[in-house]
Design a protein that fits this description.
Elements (H helix, E strand, L loop, with lengths): L1 H26 L16 H16 L4 H14 L5 E6 L2 E8 L2 E8 L7 H17 L3 H12 L7 H19 L6 H20 L1 H5 L1 H15 L1 H5 L7 H4 L6 H12 L3 H29 L16 H17 L7 H43 L8 H12 L5 H11 L2 H29 L6 H9 L18 H7 L8 H4 L2
Antiparallel strand pairs: 1-2, 2-3
Helix pairs in contact: 2-3, 2-5, 4-5, 6-7, 6-14, 7-9, 9-13, 12-13, 12-18, 13-17, 14-15, 15-16, 15-18, 17-18
Protein backbone atom coordinates (compact mmCIF):
# COMPACT_ATOMS: atom_id res chain seq x y z
CA UNK A 1 0.00 0.00 0.00
CA UNK A 2 2.85 2.34 0.80
CA UNK A 3 4.41 1.64 -2.56
CA UNK A 4 1.13 2.45 -4.35
CA UNK A 5 0.73 5.68 -2.42
CA UNK A 6 4.29 6.71 -3.34
CA UNK A 7 3.66 6.10 -7.06
CA UNK A 8 0.44 8.08 -7.01
CA UNK A 9 2.20 10.96 -5.28
CA UNK A 10 4.96 11.09 -7.92
CA UNK A 11 2.41 11.02 -10.74
CA UNK A 12 0.46 13.86 -9.17
CA UNK A 13 3.64 15.88 -8.66
CA UNK A 14 4.62 15.39 -12.31
CA UNK A 15 1.22 16.56 -13.50
CA UNK A 16 1.39 19.65 -11.31
CA UNK A 17 4.89 20.43 -12.60
CA UNK A 18 3.79 20.15 -16.21
CA UNK A 19 0.78 22.38 -15.51
CA UNK A 20 2.97 25.04 -13.87
CA UNK A 21 5.37 25.03 -16.82
CA UNK A 22 2.50 25.47 -19.26
CA UNK A 23 1.08 28.36 -17.25
CA UNK A 24 4.47 30.07 -17.07
CA UNK A 25 4.97 29.67 -20.80
CA UNK A 26 1.59 31.22 -21.55
CA UNK A 27 1.93 34.16 -19.17
CA UNK A 28 5.61 34.97 -19.64
CA UNK A 29 6.56 37.81 -22.01
CA UNK A 30 7.88 36.60 -25.38
CA UNK A 31 11.67 36.65 -25.61
CA UNK A 32 13.18 39.51 -27.53
CA UNK A 33 14.28 38.56 -31.02
CA UNK A 34 17.97 38.95 -31.65
CA UNK A 35 18.71 41.79 -34.09
CA UNK A 36 19.79 40.75 -37.55
CA UNK A 37 23.50 41.12 -38.11
CA UNK A 38 24.37 44.37 -39.79
CA UNK A 39 25.49 44.04 -43.40
CA UNK A 40 29.15 44.82 -43.88
CA UNK A 41 29.66 48.04 -45.82
CA UNK A 42 31.21 47.95 -49.29
CA UNK A 43 34.87 48.83 -49.15
CA UNK A 44 35.70 52.36 -50.29
CA UNK A 45 38.79 50.95 -51.99
CA UNK A 46 36.62 48.56 -54.00
CA UNK A 47 34.29 51.35 -55.13
CA UNK A 48 37.27 53.45 -56.22
CA UNK A 49 38.68 50.52 -58.18
CA UNK A 50 35.41 49.78 -59.98
CA UNK A 51 34.81 53.44 -60.85
CA UNK A 52 38.28 53.94 -62.28
CA UNK A 53 38.15 50.65 -64.17
CA UNK A 54 34.86 51.72 -65.75
CA UNK A 55 36.29 55.04 -66.90
CA UNK A 56 39.39 53.31 -68.28
CA UNK A 57 37.24 50.85 -70.23
CA UNK A 58 35.25 53.73 -71.71
CA UNK A 59 38.48 55.35 -72.84
CA UNK A 60 39.57 52.05 -74.42
CA UNK A 61 36.72 52.24 -76.93
CA UNK A 62 34.26 49.81 -75.35
CA UNK A 63 30.52 50.29 -75.60
CA UNK A 64 28.69 51.29 -72.42
CA UNK A 65 26.79 47.99 -72.31
CA UNK A 66 29.98 46.01 -72.43
CA UNK A 67 31.60 48.18 -69.72
CA UNK A 68 28.60 47.74 -67.45
CA UNK A 69 28.61 43.97 -67.79
CA UNK A 70 32.35 43.78 -67.12
CA UNK A 71 31.96 45.90 -63.98
CA UNK A 72 29.08 43.73 -62.77
CA UNK A 73 31.25 40.65 -63.21
CA UNK A 74 34.16 42.21 -61.33
CA UNK A 75 31.87 43.27 -58.48
CA UNK A 76 30.64 39.69 -58.13
CA UNK A 77 34.25 38.52 -57.92
CA UNK A 78 34.56 40.65 -54.78
CA UNK A 79 31.17 39.43 -53.43
CA UNK A 80 29.72 42.93 -53.81
CA UNK A 81 26.36 42.05 -55.34
CA UNK A 82 24.78 45.17 -53.83
CA UNK A 83 26.82 47.42 -56.16
CA UNK A 84 25.10 48.50 -59.39
CA UNK A 85 26.37 50.58 -62.30
CA UNK A 86 25.01 53.01 -64.86
CA UNK A 87 27.58 53.74 -67.56
CA UNK A 88 27.59 56.66 -69.99
CA UNK A 89 30.30 57.79 -72.43
CA UNK A 90 31.01 60.70 -70.08
CA UNK A 91 31.11 58.94 -66.72
CA UNK A 92 30.30 55.98 -64.50
CA UNK A 93 27.53 56.09 -61.86
CA UNK A 94 27.89 53.64 -58.97
CA UNK A 95 24.96 52.85 -56.66
CA UNK A 96 25.40 50.91 -53.43
CA UNK A 97 22.17 49.52 -51.96
CA UNK A 98 21.66 47.50 -48.79
CA UNK A 99 19.15 47.25 -45.93
CA UNK A 100 20.20 50.68 -44.61
CA UNK A 101 19.46 52.51 -47.87
CA UNK A 102 21.38 53.44 -50.99
CA UNK A 103 24.05 55.91 -52.10
CA UNK A 104 25.16 57.05 -55.56
CA UNK A 105 28.60 58.22 -56.64
CA UNK A 106 30.00 59.38 -60.00
CA UNK A 107 33.38 59.47 -61.69
CA UNK A 108 33.66 61.61 -64.80
CA UNK A 109 35.39 60.31 -67.94
CA UNK A 110 37.27 62.48 -70.39
CA UNK A 111 37.27 61.97 -74.14
CA UNK A 112 40.96 61.07 -74.46
CA UNK A 113 41.49 57.61 -75.93
CA UNK A 114 44.00 55.28 -74.34
CA UNK A 115 47.03 54.16 -76.29
CA UNK A 116 47.11 50.57 -77.52
CA UNK A 117 49.81 49.62 -75.02
CA UNK A 118 47.66 51.01 -72.20
CA UNK A 119 44.63 49.08 -73.45
CA UNK A 120 46.64 45.85 -73.49
CA UNK A 121 47.90 46.48 -69.95
CA UNK A 122 44.35 47.31 -68.79
CA UNK A 123 42.98 43.98 -69.97
CA UNK A 124 45.90 42.11 -68.45
CA UNK A 125 45.04 43.78 -65.14
CA UNK A 126 41.40 42.69 -65.48
CA UNK A 127 42.59 39.15 -66.19
CA UNK A 128 44.68 39.25 -63.02
CA UNK A 129 41.76 40.57 -60.96
CA UNK A 130 39.52 37.77 -62.17
CA UNK A 131 42.15 35.12 -61.54
CA UNK A 132 43.52 36.21 -58.15
CA UNK A 133 41.10 38.86 -56.72
CA UNK A 134 43.86 41.05 -55.25
CA UNK A 135 43.15 43.73 -52.62
CA UNK A 136 41.29 46.63 -54.29
CA UNK A 137 43.89 49.20 -53.23
CA UNK A 138 46.63 47.15 -54.87
CA UNK A 139 44.67 46.86 -58.13
CA UNK A 140 43.88 50.59 -58.09
CA UNK A 141 47.58 51.39 -57.75
CA UNK A 142 48.38 49.13 -60.70
CA UNK A 143 45.65 50.83 -62.76
CA UNK A 144 47.03 54.27 -61.90
CA UNK A 145 50.46 53.19 -63.13
CA UNK A 146 48.92 52.11 -66.43
CA UNK A 147 46.99 55.34 -66.95
CA UNK A 148 49.96 57.57 -66.08
CA UNK A 149 52.58 55.60 -67.98
CA UNK A 150 54.73 57.80 -70.23
CA UNK A 151 54.53 57.72 -74.00
CA UNK A 152 56.84 54.86 -75.07
CA UNK A 153 57.03 55.94 -78.72
CA UNK A 154 59.61 58.58 -79.67
CA UNK A 155 58.45 61.72 -81.44
CA UNK A 156 59.97 60.79 -84.77
CA UNK A 157 58.05 57.52 -84.84
CA UNK A 158 54.80 59.30 -84.00
CA UNK A 159 55.38 61.60 -86.97
CA UNK A 160 56.33 58.71 -89.22
CA UNK A 161 53.33 56.69 -88.05
CA UNK A 162 50.77 59.29 -89.09
CA UNK A 163 52.55 59.82 -92.42
CA UNK A 164 52.49 56.08 -93.14
CA UNK A 165 48.85 55.85 -92.04
CA UNK A 166 47.89 58.71 -94.37
CA UNK A 167 49.71 57.13 -97.31
CA UNK A 168 48.07 53.78 -96.61
CA UNK A 169 44.56 55.24 -96.59
CA UNK A 170 45.41 57.21 -99.70
CA UNK A 171 46.46 54.04 -101.50
CA UNK A 172 43.14 52.45 -100.53
CA UNK A 173 40.92 55.38 -101.53
CA UNK A 174 42.87 57.01 -104.36
CA UNK A 175 45.76 54.79 -105.51
CA UNK A 176 47.47 57.30 -107.80
CA UNK A 177 51.16 58.10 -107.93
CA UNK A 178 50.71 61.85 -108.37
CA UNK A 179 49.11 62.14 -104.91
CA UNK A 180 51.82 60.34 -102.92
CA UNK A 181 53.78 63.52 -102.20
CA UNK A 182 50.62 65.22 -100.97
CA UNK A 183 49.87 62.33 -98.61
CA UNK A 184 53.39 62.53 -97.19
CA UNK A 185 53.32 66.29 -96.63
CA UNK A 186 49.80 66.53 -95.25
CA UNK A 187 50.23 63.50 -92.99
CA UNK A 188 53.26 65.17 -91.43
CA UNK A 189 51.47 68.52 -91.03
CA UNK A 190 48.41 66.99 -89.37
CA UNK A 191 50.53 65.03 -86.88
CA UNK A 192 52.42 68.21 -85.98
CA UNK A 193 49.06 69.89 -85.31
CA UNK A 194 47.98 66.97 -83.12
CA UNK A 195 51.17 67.17 -81.08
CA UNK A 196 50.84 70.95 -80.72
CA UNK A 197 47.24 70.53 -79.53
CA UNK A 198 48.50 68.32 -76.69
CA UNK A 199 50.46 71.31 -75.40
CA UNK A 200 48.00 74.18 -76.03
CA UNK A 201 44.46 73.72 -74.80
CA UNK A 202 43.06 76.48 -77.02
CA UNK A 203 44.33 74.73 -80.15
CA UNK A 204 42.96 71.44 -78.88
CA UNK A 205 39.45 72.89 -78.69
CA UNK A 206 39.46 74.10 -82.28
CA UNK A 207 41.74 71.42 -83.73
CA UNK A 208 39.22 69.95 -86.23
CA UNK A 209 38.55 73.39 -87.71
CA UNK A 210 42.24 74.32 -87.83
CA UNK A 211 43.27 71.00 -89.35
CA UNK A 212 40.50 71.12 -91.96
CA UNK A 213 41.46 74.66 -92.96
CA UNK A 214 45.22 73.96 -93.12
CA UNK A 215 44.77 70.78 -95.16
CA UNK A 216 42.46 72.60 -97.57
CA UNK A 217 44.82 75.55 -97.97
CA UNK A 218 47.74 73.28 -98.77
CA UNK A 219 45.78 70.91 -101.01
CA UNK A 220 44.02 73.56 -103.11
CA UNK A 221 46.81 76.11 -102.80
CA UNK A 222 49.32 73.74 -104.41
CA UNK A 223 47.05 71.48 -106.45
CA UNK A 224 49.58 70.40 -109.06
CA UNK A 225 52.55 69.91 -106.74
CA UNK A 226 50.70 67.93 -104.07
CA UNK A 227 47.62 66.48 -105.73
CA UNK A 228 48.49 66.17 -109.39
CA UNK A 229 45.78 68.67 -110.29
CA UNK A 230 43.08 66.92 -108.25
CA UNK A 231 43.46 68.25 -104.68
CA UNK A 232 40.12 66.93 -103.40
CA UNK A 233 41.57 63.40 -103.28
CA UNK A 234 43.98 64.54 -100.57
CA UNK A 235 41.38 65.71 -98.05
CA UNK A 236 40.03 62.46 -96.66
CA UNK A 237 43.28 60.53 -96.02
CA UNK A 238 44.89 63.63 -94.52
CA UNK A 239 42.27 64.17 -91.80
CA UNK A 240 41.64 60.46 -91.23
CA UNK A 241 43.39 60.50 -87.84
CA UNK A 242 40.68 62.86 -86.53
CA UNK A 243 37.64 61.10 -87.96
CA UNK A 244 35.22 59.96 -85.21
CA UNK A 245 34.72 56.52 -86.71
CA UNK A 246 34.76 54.66 -83.40
CA UNK A 247 32.34 57.10 -81.77
CA UNK A 248 29.86 56.91 -84.65
CA UNK A 249 30.01 53.13 -84.89
CA UNK A 250 29.71 52.52 -81.14
CA UNK A 251 26.92 55.08 -80.98
CA UNK A 252 25.00 53.26 -83.71
CA UNK A 253 25.47 49.95 -81.88
CA UNK A 254 24.23 51.42 -78.60
CA UNK A 255 21.19 52.94 -80.28
CA UNK A 256 20.39 49.62 -81.95
CA UNK A 257 20.57 47.79 -78.61
CA UNK A 258 18.41 50.21 -76.63
CA UNK A 259 21.05 52.36 -74.92
CA UNK A 260 19.47 55.57 -76.14
CA UNK A 261 21.27 58.09 -73.93
CA UNK A 262 24.74 56.66 -74.56
CA UNK A 263 24.12 56.06 -78.25
CA UNK A 264 22.64 59.50 -78.89
CA UNK A 265 25.47 61.28 -77.10
CA UNK A 266 28.15 59.39 -79.03
CA UNK A 267 26.39 59.95 -82.34
CA UNK A 268 25.92 63.66 -81.76
CA UNK A 269 29.57 63.97 -80.71
CA UNK A 270 30.71 62.18 -83.86
CA UNK A 271 28.61 64.22 -86.26
CA UNK A 272 29.59 67.42 -84.50
CA UNK A 273 33.25 66.59 -85.11
CA UNK A 274 32.53 65.86 -88.77
CA UNK A 275 30.78 69.21 -89.09
CA UNK A 276 33.74 70.98 -87.48
CA UNK A 277 36.07 69.36 -90.01
CA UNK A 278 33.74 70.38 -92.83
CA UNK A 279 33.61 73.92 -91.42
CA UNK A 280 37.41 74.03 -91.51
CA UNK A 281 37.40 72.90 -95.14
CA UNK A 282 34.87 75.61 -95.97
CA UNK A 283 37.03 78.26 -94.28
CA UNK A 284 40.04 77.10 -96.29
CA UNK A 285 38.09 77.29 -99.54
CA UNK A 286 36.86 80.81 -98.75
CA UNK A 287 40.36 82.00 -97.84
CA UNK A 288 41.64 80.80 -101.20
CA UNK A 289 38.97 82.72 -103.09
CA UNK A 290 38.84 81.61 -106.72
CA UNK A 291 39.99 78.03 -107.10
CA UNK A 292 42.16 76.80 -109.96
CA UNK A 293 40.52 74.43 -112.44
CA UNK A 294 40.50 70.88 -111.17
CA UNK A 295 41.64 68.13 -113.49
CA UNK A 296 39.50 65.01 -113.77
CA UNK A 297 40.80 62.00 -111.85
CA UNK A 298 43.46 60.09 -113.72
CA UNK A 299 42.20 56.95 -115.41
CA UNK A 300 45.19 54.81 -114.54
CA UNK A 301 46.04 53.95 -110.97
CA UNK A 302 48.90 52.10 -109.37
CA UNK A 303 47.30 48.70 -109.86
CA UNK A 304 45.56 46.08 -107.78
CA UNK A 305 48.49 45.84 -105.39
CA UNK A 306 48.14 49.43 -104.16
CA UNK A 307 45.15 48.84 -101.82
CA UNK A 308 46.77 45.63 -100.55
CA UNK A 309 49.93 47.57 -99.73
CA UNK A 310 47.74 50.29 -98.24
CA UNK A 311 46.36 47.86 -95.64
CA UNK A 312 49.91 46.98 -94.59
CA UNK A 313 50.79 50.66 -94.26
CA UNK A 314 47.63 51.33 -92.25
CA UNK A 315 48.64 48.62 -89.79
CA UNK A 316 52.19 49.92 -89.53
CA UNK A 317 51.14 53.54 -89.18
CA UNK A 318 48.47 52.89 -86.59
CA UNK A 319 50.72 50.64 -84.51
CA UNK A 320 53.39 53.35 -84.44
CA UNK A 321 51.23 56.39 -83.76
CA UNK A 322 49.06 54.56 -81.18
CA UNK A 323 51.99 52.79 -79.45
CA UNK A 324 50.88 49.21 -80.06
CA UNK A 325 52.37 46.56 -77.74
CA UNK A 326 55.39 44.60 -78.88
CA UNK A 327 54.75 41.61 -81.14
CA UNK A 328 51.19 42.77 -81.86
CA UNK A 329 51.65 44.01 -85.43
CA UNK A 330 51.20 40.59 -87.03
CA UNK A 331 47.93 39.95 -85.19
CA UNK A 332 46.73 43.44 -86.00
CA UNK A 333 47.40 42.87 -89.71
CA UNK A 334 45.48 39.58 -89.67
CA UNK A 335 42.33 41.38 -88.53
CA UNK A 336 42.89 44.26 -90.94
CA UNK A 337 43.32 41.98 -93.95
CA UNK A 338 40.31 39.90 -92.93
CA UNK A 339 38.17 43.04 -92.75
CA UNK A 340 39.64 44.23 -96.05
CA UNK A 341 38.77 40.93 -97.75
CA UNK A 342 35.22 41.15 -96.44
CA UNK A 343 34.95 44.71 -97.69
CA UNK A 344 36.21 43.77 -101.15
CA UNK A 345 33.95 40.71 -101.27
CA UNK A 346 30.89 42.83 -100.59
CA UNK A 347 31.83 45.25 -103.34
CA UNK A 348 32.39 42.41 -105.83
CA UNK A 349 28.95 40.95 -105.04
CA UNK A 350 27.30 44.03 -106.57
CA UNK A 351 26.33 45.22 -103.14
CA UNK A 352 28.47 48.30 -103.39
CA UNK A 353 30.31 49.96 -100.55
CA UNK A 354 27.50 49.43 -98.03
CA UNK A 355 27.52 45.64 -98.29
CA UNK A 356 31.31 45.72 -98.21
CA UNK A 357 31.29 47.78 -95.01
CA UNK A 358 28.77 45.41 -93.44
CA UNK A 359 30.79 42.30 -94.28
CA UNK A 360 34.02 43.94 -93.18
CA UNK A 361 32.61 44.75 -89.74
CA UNK A 362 30.99 41.33 -89.40
CA UNK A 363 34.14 39.38 -90.31
CA UNK A 364 36.48 41.48 -88.16
CA UNK A 365 34.79 40.45 -84.89
CA UNK A 366 35.09 36.63 -85.11
CA UNK A 367 38.60 36.93 -86.56
CA UNK A 368 39.61 39.12 -83.61
CA UNK A 369 38.12 36.48 -81.30
CA UNK A 370 40.17 33.75 -82.97
CA UNK A 371 43.32 35.86 -82.76
CA UNK A 372 43.09 36.37 -79.00
CA UNK A 373 43.14 32.62 -78.41
CA UNK A 374 46.89 32.59 -78.98
CA UNK A 375 49.08 33.00 -75.91
CA UNK A 376 51.20 35.61 -77.69
CA UNK A 377 48.29 37.68 -79.01
CA UNK A 378 47.23 40.98 -77.43
CA UNK A 379 43.67 41.54 -76.17
CA UNK A 380 40.99 41.62 -78.83
CA UNK A 381 40.30 45.32 -78.40
CA UNK A 382 43.89 46.12 -79.39
CA UNK A 383 43.66 44.30 -82.72
CA UNK A 384 40.06 45.32 -83.40
CA UNK A 385 40.25 49.10 -82.93
CA UNK A 386 42.50 49.73 -85.98
CA UNK A 387 39.82 48.16 -88.18
CA UNK A 388 37.72 51.29 -87.60
CA UNK A 389 40.44 53.37 -89.22
CA UNK A 390 40.11 51.32 -92.38
CA UNK A 391 36.41 50.46 -92.45
CA UNK A 392 34.96 53.87 -91.68
CA UNK A 393 35.25 56.08 -94.76
CA UNK A 394 32.68 58.34 -93.16
CA UNK A 395 35.00 61.27 -93.73
CA UNK A 396 34.18 61.05 -97.44
CA UNK A 397 31.11 63.03 -96.51
CA UNK A 398 33.31 66.03 -95.72
CA UNK A 399 33.84 66.84 -99.38
CA UNK A 400 30.12 66.53 -99.93
CA UNK A 401 29.41 69.02 -97.13
CA UNK A 402 31.76 71.60 -98.65
CA UNK A 403 30.37 71.15 -102.15
CA UNK A 404 26.83 71.39 -100.82
CA UNK A 405 27.58 74.71 -99.08
CA UNK A 406 29.75 76.33 -101.75
CA UNK A 407 28.23 75.04 -104.99
CA UNK A 408 24.73 73.87 -104.03
CA UNK A 409 25.68 70.54 -105.58
CA UNK A 410 22.95 67.95 -104.88
CA UNK A 411 25.60 65.24 -105.05
CA UNK A 412 27.05 66.63 -101.85
CA UNK A 413 23.90 65.62 -99.96
CA UNK A 414 24.10 62.19 -101.55
CA UNK A 415 27.66 61.77 -100.26
CA UNK A 416 26.58 62.77 -96.74
CA UNK A 417 23.73 60.26 -96.73
CA UNK A 418 26.04 57.57 -98.07
CA UNK A 419 28.56 58.30 -95.30
CA UNK A 420 25.84 57.91 -92.65
CA UNK A 421 24.66 54.64 -94.17
CA UNK A 422 28.25 53.40 -94.28
CA UNK A 423 28.63 53.95 -90.54
CA UNK A 424 25.34 52.15 -89.92
CA UNK A 425 26.43 49.26 -92.14
CA UNK A 426 29.65 48.83 -90.17
CA UNK A 427 27.75 49.02 -86.88
CA UNK A 428 25.28 46.37 -87.97
CA UNK A 429 28.15 44.19 -89.16
CA UNK A 430 29.85 44.47 -85.78
CA UNK A 431 26.51 43.72 -84.10
CA UNK A 432 26.00 40.55 -86.14
CA UNK A 433 29.61 39.47 -85.67
CA UNK A 434 29.29 40.01 -81.93
CA UNK A 435 26.21 37.82 -81.82
CA UNK A 436 28.13 35.03 -83.55
CA UNK A 437 30.75 34.82 -80.82
CA UNK A 438 28.85 35.82 -77.68
CA UNK A 439 25.49 34.05 -77.73
CA UNK A 440 25.04 31.10 -75.39
CA UNK A 441 21.48 30.19 -76.26
CA UNK A 442 22.20 28.03 -79.30
CA UNK A 443 25.27 26.72 -81.13
CA UNK A 444 27.10 29.57 -82.82
CA UNK A 445 30.56 30.24 -84.15
CA UNK A 446 32.10 30.25 -80.66
CA UNK A 447 31.03 26.67 -80.03
CA UNK A 448 32.26 25.55 -83.44
CA UNK A 449 35.62 27.17 -82.69
CA UNK A 450 35.82 25.30 -79.39
CA UNK A 451 35.19 22.02 -81.25
CA UNK A 452 37.84 22.78 -83.87
CA UNK A 453 40.58 24.26 -81.69
CA UNK A 454 40.02 22.54 -78.37
CA UNK A 455 39.77 24.20 -74.95
CA UNK A 456 40.57 27.84 -74.36
CA UNK A 457 44.28 28.59 -74.63
CA UNK A 458 44.32 32.37 -74.56
CA UNK A 459 45.55 34.55 -71.72
CA UNK A 460 42.94 37.24 -72.14
CA UNK A 461 39.78 35.70 -70.78
CA UNK A 462 38.54 39.05 -69.53
CA UNK A 463 39.08 40.83 -72.82
CA UNK A 464 38.55 37.89 -75.14
CA UNK A 465 35.23 39.16 -76.28
CA UNK A 466 36.01 42.85 -75.92
CA UNK A 467 35.63 43.36 -79.64
CA UNK A 468 32.12 41.92 -79.38
CA UNK A 469 30.43 45.21 -78.66
CA UNK A 470 27.14 43.55 -77.71
CA UNK A 471 27.01 40.61 -75.36
CA UNK A 472 24.17 38.30 -74.41
CA UNK A 473 22.43 40.86 -72.19
CA UNK A 474 22.08 43.20 -75.15
CA UNK A 475 20.64 40.43 -77.33
CA UNK A 476 18.08 39.68 -74.64
CA UNK A 477 17.13 43.34 -74.40
CA UNK A 478 16.56 43.67 -78.15
CA UNK A 479 14.34 40.57 -78.16
CA UNK A 480 12.26 41.87 -75.29
CA UNK A 481 13.53 39.61 -72.52
CA UNK A 482 15.44 40.63 -69.45
CA UNK A 483 17.13 39.13 -66.45
CA UNK A 484 17.21 40.25 -62.85
CA UNK A 485 19.61 43.10 -62.34
CA UNK A 486 19.28 44.51 -65.85
CA UNK A 487 17.11 47.46 -64.92
CA UNK A 488 19.99 49.90 -64.95
CA UNK A 489 20.92 48.81 -68.47
CA UNK A 490 17.44 49.23 -69.87
CA UNK A 491 17.20 52.68 -68.34
CA UNK A 492 19.77 53.91 -70.82
Amino acid sequence: MTRGLYGATRKAAGSVDRWLRRVNAETAAPPEEAPEPEEPPVSRDLLDLLRHLGVALIRSGETTNRVQDMLDDLARRYDADEVHFFVLPTGVFVRVQDSRGSAVDLLEANSDTLRLDQIAALYRLIDDIKAHVPPPAQATTALARILTSPQPTPVWRLLLGNVVLTVGLGLMLNPTSNALLGYLVLGLVVQLLLMAADRWRLLSTGLPVVAGAVVTLLSFGFPNALGGGNPSQLLIPSVSSMLPGSALTNGSIELATGSMVAGASRTIYGFNKLLLLAFGILIGLQLLGSLPPVKPPSAGGLGWWAPVLGVLLIGLGHSWRASAPKRSLGWLLIVLYAAFCGQQLGQQLHGGGLLGSFLGGMIAVPVAYLVQRSKDAPPTQVVFLPAFWMLVPGGMGLTGVSELVTKNDPNGLHVIVNAVLTVLAIAMGVLVGSGLVSSTRRPRLEHLVEDWLGPETGRHAAGGRAAAAVIEAETQRTTGSSEPGSASQSSQ
